[in-house]
């Protein structure tokens, strides 16, 4: 198993846990925005593991973007991590998977990618981009044996959501992992969860903006 993120100590700790269970773990302390380093890590993993079955592009950030202050720099950072980070993670594995005629390329998007929300312009755009990217990639890979998919969680209890007070339909991390694992095994396309959000998805997509403004008001100005 290959593990990629920036904090080496956490990666090493996780690798130890994985190895204690009898699997092999290779650590790559790389920033997903670094295109050449991500390609190098992918090539190294494919060589050491003699192939690849599954890649999960999970890295993502949700930061205040300073949109009301007219500052586009944090927006650029968010889009690079959440969107370019996903393409940097998945694309280097495409040739190997196509040659093998097997493999799954999964990206963690968000239910926020299904509908524009006030105060979430950059985050929503990045996740909508991930959903569209994986959908197009899946069609492009049709007939090769390789599957591309997007996982679209609602709120999940993780460090990212630790400071949030209102989280409708929030689920715990273990439940999210179980649901995502099942979706990967079943080769779902764009998998939205929990079920309440999956049911609401067509309604939300078509709801008028006045209704969206009422049910999902923008966060406080300092959080935007
Ligand atoms: N939690 C939710 O409610 C929720 C809902 C919908 C979607 N999501 C999505 O789920 C994914 C995981 O989120 P989470 O809630 O688990 O967030 P988290 O607790 O903040 O974890 C984010 C992970 O991404 C890694 N990461 C962040 N920036 C990176 C970078 N530039 N390069 C490499 N790794 C990077 C972090 O490791 P390092 O800091 O060590 O690099 C960390 O492992 C994200 O894509 C997020 O948008 C979360």
Give the low-confidence spans.
Answer: none
Q: Sketch the major β-sheet.
A: 4 strands, parallel
Our count of helices gives 8
The named CATH superfamily: NAD(P)-binding Rossmann-like Domain
Strand order of the largest sheet: 3-4-5-6
Could you give the distance between the termini?
37 Å
Total domain count: 1
Q: Percent of residues in beta strands? A: 5-15%
The rough form would be described as globular
- Provide the residue-averaged pLDDT: 95
Q: Pairing-aware structural class of the strands and helices?
A: alpha/beta
CATH fold group: Rossmann fold
Helix content class: 40-55%
- Please provide the ordered H/E string of secondary-structure elements: EHEHEHHEHEHEHH
Short description:
By secondary structure, this protein is of the alpha/beta class.
Task: Describe it.
- This protein has 224 residues and is α/β, with parallel strands linked by helices.
- The protein has a single domain, classed as 3-Layer(aba) Sandwich (Rossmann fold).
- Helices cover 47% and strands 13% of the residues.
- It has 8 helices and 6 strands; from the N terminus they run E-H-E-H-E-H-H-E-H-E-H-E-H-H.
- A 4-stranded parallel beta sheet has the order 3-4-5-6, sandwiched between helices.
- Strand 1 (2-5), helix 1 and strand 2 form a beta-alpha-beta unit.
- Helix 3 (73-90) runs parallel beside helix 5.
- The longest helix has 20 residues, at 121-140.
- It is globular and about 55 Å long.
- The structure holds NADP nicotinamide-adenine-dinucleotide phosphate.
- NADP nicotinamide-adenine-dinucleotide phosphate binds next to helix 3.
């Amino acid at each position: 198993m290959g593990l990629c993120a920036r904090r080496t100590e956490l990666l090493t700790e996780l690798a130890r846990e994985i190895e204690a269970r009898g699997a092999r773990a290779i650590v790559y302390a790389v920033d997903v925005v670094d295109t050449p380093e991500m390609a190098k890590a992918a090539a190294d993993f494919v060589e050491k593991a003699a192939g690849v079955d599954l890649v999960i592009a999970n890295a993502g950030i949700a930061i205040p973007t300073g949109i009301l202050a007219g500052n586009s720099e944090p927006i650029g950072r968010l889009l690079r991590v959440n969107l370019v980070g996903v393409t940097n993670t998945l694309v280097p594995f495409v040739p190997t998977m196509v040659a093998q005629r097997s493999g799954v390329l999964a990206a963690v998007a968000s239910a926020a990618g299904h509908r524009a929300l006030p105060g979430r312009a950059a985050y929503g755009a990045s996740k909508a981009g991930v959903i569209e990217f994986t959908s197009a990639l899946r069609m492009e890979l049709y007939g090769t044996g390789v599957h591309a998919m997007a996982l679209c969680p609602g709120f999940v209890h993780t460090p990212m959501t630790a400071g949030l007070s209102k989280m409708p339909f929030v689920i715990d991390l273990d439940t999210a992992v179980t649901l995502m694992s099942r979706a990967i095994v079943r080769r779902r396309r764009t998998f939205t969860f929990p079920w309440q959000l999956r049911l609401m998805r067509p309604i939300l997509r078509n709801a008028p903006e006045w209704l969206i403004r009422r049910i999902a008001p923008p966060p406080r100005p300092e959080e935007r």
